[in-house]
Amino acid sequence: MKYKIHYASFISVLPLQLNHIREEFLHAKPLKSRPIGRNQTLQMIFILVFSFLNLHSLSGSTSTDNTAGSIIYPYNATTAIVKPGQSFDVWFNSKPGQVVSSVVLKGPYNTALIPSESITTVSGSWEYDPVSENTYNTKIKVRVPQEIPEDRYDLILNTSGGEVISRSAVKVIREYKTNYKIFLIADSHYGQRGTEVMVPNKHTAFVEMANIINPDIVVNAGDVVYYHSDPSQLKERMDLFYQGNEAEGLKGMHDFNAATFVIAGNHDYPEGGIDGLPREGYNDLKSDYWNRWHGLQYHFFRYGNSRFMIFNNGWLGYDWHWQRDRAANWLNGEGSNGNLNVALAHISRTEYMDSFASENDIGLYLLGHNHHLGDRNPYMIDERQVMYYIRSVREYMEFMLFRVDDSKGTFMPVGYTNTDPDTDGYGLSTANNRVLENDEERTNPDMSVWIYNLTLDYEHDNNGSSSYNTATLINKFDYAISDARVRFIMPQGAVYRVSQGSVYQAFDGDKYHVVDVDIHLNASSKTVVKIAPEN
Q1: DSSP run (H or E) holding 9
Q2: In 3-state terms, the chain is what percent helix, strand and coil (to 5)?
Q3: Rounded to whole angstroms, how far apart are CA atoms 247 and 271?
Q4: Element spanning 234, H or E
Q5: Which stretches of 30-130 are assigned E, i.e. beta strand?
Q6: pTM above 0.85?
Q7: What's the pLDDT tens digit per position in 52-79?
Q8: Where are the beta strands (DSSP E) in 188-298?
């Protein structure tokens, strides 16, 4: 049986947000009634329903401050890493007539106004995603002040249309460390039925533990937030994932002290419900959805001598060869002369990555998706044991940790040992670490029974109200943690000394004096650090 539909009538009601679909229909055939098959009709009806019900959610933002224009990079899934006195790029899609007047970096305790001579702006049109065909029209280069403290900062553009904010978008570092750490989690599945309470609390535990371990790069390797057809509930999920909920004591990706990066997974698109997209196809809509809520779906960056490549290979049937081609070109150009090439994705896709790893000297390949494989790490790729899976946040409560020697381009996985004699990785470190000493309680809804393997407690409220404080760190892991971090928030007007460890930095913020202390934690140890004014 055949159905008839008039294309002009159909496309006239497609919202402007999906203009590329309208154009596809307009140029595919002459505008006249013609018979089409039932499947084609249903597909077009599906797009129409999807368009109407997602008109708001597709144009959403996890920041209610973005009232005019939008920051494309750095935003949510990416963080710009920059040293004092150096510059980083901002990709901004301004509205007609909107002009950027100034830039502010706002940290948790201090604010830096960037002088106008440290800002350059270029107008034009640049496509940042070849699948969604989304573009931006303004490139901004921002030079960071020489004296700015190391911290993670909100990026604020003051424009003629109001403030535009990208939360926790910039990580200022004093230097690229010779020995640095990578911390990974994956498969959070925020909003999935039955996990609404447990997963945000697990995520909070990861943030708090990571901020003690003091990694330099944190990655969430996909399947991060489930779609909801109600735009307000979708925004609530996205906000919880990225920003946390301070009133409920919940922390999100923006609360990690380290630079963070988020990878697209096979569930990271509008799936389920009457307005959900099919598992396969419609990658332009899926890309647009990811762009608007998370940002870039692929990203390459440098940390010291290491080269990081983040890929989106999660969607079923998605042809992502263009990302690998761009990564190879980047490694031969701007990203050349590195000594450790790190690839990160949601799914292994070894049928493609074996040759890519061989041709591009991939030294470490980090993955999510396979929730239960991490205890048998490492796996083989290109005949080398450099592929590691992180066990899922949803079922487990584990993180992966790597120490990297940036001068040599070598890494060391830190975590419990593979005890499966039938695997290639038998007897080697899996790089996976259990957050809880009583790991069997990880699914207990009474989270008060959780006993953490690493804790930091202060004698007094660490809020700048006391000139004296004591931090107690308990490390139950069977390995030492070098350069763990303790941050003291103190009253201004004094110079402070600490009982042990080394002061990494100390600065006067907007209201308080901040002292960051690096401390070595021995395996299975208790460490006490006291701070007081100098006599």
Answers
A1: helix 7-11
A2: 20, 35, 40
A3: 30
A4: helix 231-243
A5: 34-36, 70-73, 80-82, 87-93, 100-106, 111-114, 119-129
A6: yes
A7: 444 444 433 444 343 346 999 999 999 9
A8: 217-220, 259-262
